[in-house]
TrEMBL record:
Residues 407-449 are annotated as: Disordered. GO terms for cellular component: mitochondrion. Keywords: ATP-binding, Cytoplasm, Metal-binding, Mitochondrion, Nucleotide-binding, Phosphoprotein, Transferase, Transit peptide, tRNA processing, Zinc, Zinc-finger. It catalyses: adenosine(37) in tRNA + dimethylallyl diphosphate = N(6)-dimethylallyladenosine(37) in tRNA + diphosphate. Catalyzes the transfer of a dimethylallyl group onto the adenine at position 37 of both cytosolic and mitochondrial tRNAs, leading to the formation of N6-(dimethylallyl)adenosine (i6A37). Mediates modification of a limited subset of tRNAs: tRNA(Ser)(AGA), tRNA(Ser)(CGA), tRNA(Ser)(UGA), as well as partial modification of the selenocysteine tRNA(Ser)(UCA). TRIT1 is therefore required for selenoprotein expression. Its main location: cytoplasm. It is an enzyme of class 2 (transferase). Belongs to the IPP transferase family. SUPFAM superfamilies: beta-beta-alpha zinc fingers, P-loop containing nucleoside triphosphate hydrolases. It comes from Patagioenas fasciata monilis. Residues 407-420 have a biased composition (Basic residues). GO terms for biological process: tRNA modification. This is tRNA dimethylallyltransferase.
Length: 449
């Protein structure tokens, strides 16, 4: 098709950026490897934990053998003690790699489950404060400093410099509040104003700026929830068989044991926030210091916690695809092609074959034979309204969240309790008023002789 276009004097269609989305356990890495081998592509990992060296099993990195079959990027290059590697750092390095892959006439295949990493590659949604900062201190360190403050205090500070953004963020969402404060401190411009500028750019939309790569091919791997849950349970068992506990013990001894002894362990930043590490905290710190029976119980507790948190994470990932792609308002949304992966025995027919057909259609500049997933965008957009439920003493952000809160068991319980108190108070007042009338009447009528 490209050769025919050149013969006719037309430029060949641009190479597509292929992005593979999906919950953990759906086979994203396997499909990326198969597409890379068949289409001459290179794989760019978009996983916030796989950038770090170490914990290869728990972060589910592709094996060295698989990496030799097809070139992979953005895996195991950040020291595990680095705690301030940001999405901006990722975006800058990954975009340069993608441009280099395009320049070599190859197809970049982005694969991973870290939502905001993928968004940073597709849309102009990030603000690089490092370029505009005049402060000698790294801005990432400043964000960590801000996150140490109380959430209410952080939100109060943001309200003073950027009330519009403060109204959209919950005081408990310390990371986002700290980020907005950091943006203002480093640029002198309110975060909300910068976002408005991005949205108003040509090709922008309500959630951010224009697409970086308009010729993007998005493949979404999804499965029946029951089938996926079963697969994730087995994956944890396979990790244990592959040496997960030995990996965790070794990493704990090297990087975390001293921190725990000094009570300064941090499971909120860097690789230490990996799903699976903190779940085994009690087991790791008590190993050798408790009875075998207690150790076995703590081990089982960690295994069950890992299985549960992995399944919850998978649900959040699918929710993100629906909210940030299928329900994303505006014109700057690439088509998303769904691939059903519930039955792994039908991988060739249901996944690989249609995926190849879709990507090859993009390469050749023709319409794919598969229809994209229908967009679910609701014209009644969920506005980021700010409300305070005085009854429950809670801040609620978002119209839909407010509607859900007012229907929640907790809110209805408080409402029922208040109505009972009001009814009791009203009854007491009525009784008091009646008693007062009788006394007044007795006082006004002289006693009979």
């Amino acid at each position: 098709m490209a050769a025919a276009a050149l013969c006719l004097g037309r430029a060949p269609p641009p190479r597509p950026l292929v992005v593979i989305l999906g919950a953990t356990g759906t086979g994203k890495s396997a499909l990326a490897l198969q597409l890379g081998l068949r289409l001459g592509g290179e794989i760019v990992s978009a996983d916030s934990m796989q950038v770090y060296k170490g914990l290869d099993i728990i972060t589910n990195k592709v094996s060295p053998q698989e990496q030799r079959l097809c070139r992979h990027h953005m895996i195991s290059f950040v020291d595990p003690l680095v705690s301030n590697y940001t999405v901006v750092d990722f975006r800058d390095k990954a975009v340069a790699l993608i441009e280099d892959i395009f320049a070599r006439d190859k197809i970049p295949i982005v694969v991973g489950g870290t939502n905001y990493y993928i968004e940073s590659l597709l849309w102009k949604v990030l603000i690089n404060t490092q370029k505009s900062s005049t402060s000698p201190r790294p801005v990432t360190d400043r964000k960590v400093e801000l996150e140490q403050l109380d959430g209410v205090e952080l939100h109060r500070r943001l309200s003073q410099v950027d009330p519009e953004m403060a109204a959209k963020l919950h005081p408990h969402d310390k990371r986002k509040v700290a980020r907005s404060l950091q943006v203002f401190e480093e640029t002198g411009i309110p975060h909300s104003e910068i976002l408005h500028q991005q949205q108003e750019e040509e090709g922008g939309g309500p959630l951010g700026g224009p697409l970086k790569y308009p010729h993007s091919c998005i493949l979404w791997l999804h499965a029946d929830q029951a089938a996926l849950d079963q697969r994730l349970e087995k994956r944890v068992d396979d990790m244990l068989a592959a040496g997960l506990l030995e990996e965790l013990r070794d990493f704990h001894r090297r990087y975390n044991q001293e921190k725990v002894a000094e009570n300064r362990q941090d499971y909120q930043h860097g690789i230490f926030q990996s799903i699976g590490f903190k779940e085994f905290h009690e087991y790791l710190v008590s190993e050798g210091n408790c009875s075998p029976e207690t150790s076995a119980l703590l081990l089982q507790k960690g295994i069950q916690a890992l299985k549960q948190v992995t399944k919850k994470y998978a649900r959040r990932q699918n929710k993100w695809v629906r909210n940030r792609f299928l329900r994303r308002p505006g014109p700057n949304v690439p088509p998303v092609y769904g691939l059903e992966v519930s039955d792994l025995l039908r991988w060739e027919e249901d996944v690989l074959k249609p995926a190849l057909e879709i990507v090859e259609s993009f390469i050749q500049g023709r319409e794919p034979p598969v229809e994209p997933v229908k967009m679910e965008y609701d014209v009644n957009e969920n506005k980021r309204s700010h409300r305070v439920c005085e009854l429950c003493d809670r801040v609620i952000i978002g119209d839909r969240e407010w509607a859900a809160h007012t229907r929640s068991k907790s809110h209805l319980h408080h409402l029922k309790k208040r109505r009972k108190l009001e009814a009791a108070s009203h009854a007491a007042e009525t009784k008091g008023d009646g008693a007062g009338t009788e006394i007044s009447g007795e006082d006004s009528v002289p006693p009979l002789p």
